[in-house]
Each structure stands twice: as C-alpha cells, then as structure tokens.
Specification:
Elements: E1 7-12, E2 16-21, E3 27-34, E4 42-44, E5 52-63, E6 67-78, E7 89-103, E8 108-124, E9 132-136, E10 140-144, E11 147-151, E12 158-163, E13 168-182, E14 185-199, E15 209-214, E16 240-249, H1 253-269
Antiparallel strand pairs: 1-2, 3-7, 4-5, 5-6, 6-15, 6-16, 7-14, 8-13, 8-15, 8-16, 9-12, 9-14, 10-14, 11-13
Length: about 270
C-alpha cells in the first residue's frame, strides 16, 4: 500500500505487541445510542407514593482516529415502604444499546474490543423475613460490518437471592473479542440484556429495599437505596457497561500475524 506514514505498535491486552504500518486507516463517525426498547427514566408506583425507579443513559467517552470508547449506565431500585407502601415490588427493564462507526482502511484490519459491566447490588432488608432478589441476564451481542474472529462480546448473568442479608455486592464482569474485516466498512456493535430487582416479604412484615447500581442514580422521594455515592461511597463515573474499541490497521502478512497473536492471547486469558 502507498502513503505509509509511520510504524504503529499496538500492545494488546498487555501481553502481545504487534508492529504494523499505519496505512491511513481511521475510525470515523463514532456514535453510541439506545434503541426504542431500552428502559427509560421511570418512577414506579402510585402517583405521590412511588415504590421504585429505573433509569439509563448512554454516551461516548472519547475517540481518536484508531480508538472509540463508550459507556452505557443503568440502575433499578425497589423500596416499597419508603412512602408508606406495604406490597412486594418488582422493578424490571431491558438494557439495549449500540455503538456505530466507520472503518476507512482499504485493506485488512482488526478491531480489539474490550468491555466490562461494573456496579453493585445493594440491599437493606426491613427484617429477617425479607427475601430480596436481583438478576442481570447475559449479554446478547450482535456485530455487523465485521467478523468475530475470537473471544466473545457476551458477559455472563448475575443472580442474587432470594436473601434476607444486608449486602453491598460488587459486580465486575470483563470480556474481550477480536473482530476482523477488509476494506471500508460501517460497523455496529449491539448489546442487550434484561434486569430485575424485587423487594419481597415472606412474612407479615413489610418488605425492605434493593437496588442495582450501575452508573445512574435511582433514588426517589424518601428512598436512597439507589443513590450515589451511597453505600460504599461508589464513584458514579466508574460504574456502567464500558466498551473500548481499538483499530489495528495491518497490511499484508502483518494482518495475519496480528490476528494470530491476539487470538492466542485471548485463548490463554479465558
């Protein structure tokens, strides 16, 4: 290829360094968005006497000619007694978001994708008879405009309870994948999963409170179970589903070497 400007050294996952020529390959037009089935910001329960809340947001964290970082934040809380309620309460919602961008390279290229879901499950049972529970489903991921070569964009489920314990349980799931392609392409990475929290009493006393905190404050009138910094003094900016994409332009035989090395690294890290 012509117009080779410089040598690019990419150290993938701190284990494999690949040297390739910069061939004017670029990431352009990056954006992150939710789809119409994604849960919005909603107060749950009767008007004036809320029992729960769910919320989400999405945004780009930064981009260069070869990188793109985005974050989806979400949260759900159930606290039926905060405003005089006594009924068991379930708050649920779907997380659905995507990243889109264009790759301008005329030759073969690879995308290193690293992602993680980070947050906390926090409970405050009213008595030993409470049975709080929560779940985050596995990620259902999709890719268009590139081919999944190795690794995975799927993260496993998280399940808690039923339990009467008071907890502040960290959620920290990580994964990585190697995508490949050739020539100009419009790439979309999509992610979807379901969430639920339930505050339930197994006896005659009222239920307690529970929240999944993953980067959005879901406190509401008289309830702080879903607040930030809240229990554990969590920095809100460090929670969420984070996805980082790095473009590796690799002409000729170097592309195969890069892909083989990165794939071997991911196999060793599973």
């Amino acid at each position: 290829m012509s117009a080779i400007r410089s040598t690019l050294v990419v150290c993938a996952f701190t284990a494999v360094c690949v040297t390739a020529k910069d061939t004017h390959a670029d990431i352009q037009n990056p954006s992150a968005q939710t789809d119409f089935l994604n849960m919005g910001n909603q107060i749950i329960g009767p008007l004036g006497s809320p029992t729960g809340r769910r919320a989400s947001s999405v945004g780009t964290l930064g981009s260069t000619s070869t990188t793109f970082d985005a974050r989806y934040a979400w949260g759900l809380s159930a606290d039926p007694t905060a405003n005089g309620g006594t009924n068991d309460t379930t708050v649920s919602g779907d997380s659905r978001w995507s990243m889109t961008f264009d790759v301008t390279d005329a030759g073969p290229w690879a995308l290193i994708v690293q992602h993680r879901r980070h947050g906390a499950l926090t409970t405050d049972p009213a008595s030993q008879f409470d049975t709080n529970s929560a779940s985050i489903a596995p990620i259902v991921a999709g890719v268009t405009g590139a081919t999944l070569h190795s690794g995975s964009l799927v993260l496993p489920s998280f399940v808690f309870g039923p339990s009467d314990s008071t907890v502040d349980l960290a959620i920290n799931q990580t994964g990585n994948a190697l995508l490949t392609g050739s020539g100009p392409s419009s790439v979309t990475l999509s992610f979807a999963w379901s969430n639920a929290v339930r505050a339930e009493s197994s006896f005659i006393v009222a239920p307690g409170a529970i929240a999944l905190r993953a980067g959005v404050d879901t406190s509401f009138t008289n309830s702080t179970i879903g607040a930030y910094p809240g229990v554990g003094a969590r920095p809100i900016a460090l929670d969420g589903h984070f996805v980082s994409v790095t473009l590796v332009p690799a002409p000729g035989g170097v592309a195969a070497l890069a892909i083989a090395g990165l794939a071997a690294t991911m196999r060793r890290r599973r």
